[in-house]
Protein: Response regulator transcription factor
Amino acid sequence: MHVIPGNLPAVVVIEDDLYMQGILSQCLSENFSPVLFDNGMDAFAYLQEGNIPDIIISDLNTPLLNGIQFLEQVRSSGFFGSIPVIILSGVENTDTKIKCLEAGADDFIVKPFNPRELAARLKMILKRAGKLTVN
Structure:
C-alpha cells in the first residue's frame, strides 16, 4: 500500500497502561492513524475482522495475549505475517530483546522512549516495507 498525502498509515497499538496509551496516541496522531487496544486478544480479533494496519506496536506485557504470544500469532498467519511489528517494553534485557527479534519483531523499543525516535523508527520500517512513499 502506498500512502497518498493526507492519508495516514494505520497503526494498531496494544498497550494496557492508560497513561502510556495517552502518550502513544498523542505522539502518533500527527503522522499516523492509531487504533488502540488494551490487550492482544482484542487486537488480534480486530485483525481477524479484516482490519489490516500498516504497522503494529505492542507492549510486551499485556493481558490475555502478551506481546510475544501476539507476535507469534501474527507471524504464523498467512494473512498478517508481513505486517511489521514493534515491541515496546519497560524491561531493558538483552535476552528479552533477542527473544522478541527471533520471534519476528521488526524492532524493540525500551520505555520510556523519545516520541520523535519512535516516529522515526516507524517511518523507517514502513519505508523499508514499501508502505510509505511520503515523508
Confidence is low (pLDDT under 50) at residues 1-5. The chain has one domain: 10-128. The radius of gyration is 14 Å. Strands lie at 10-14, 33-37, 55-59, 85-89, 107-110.
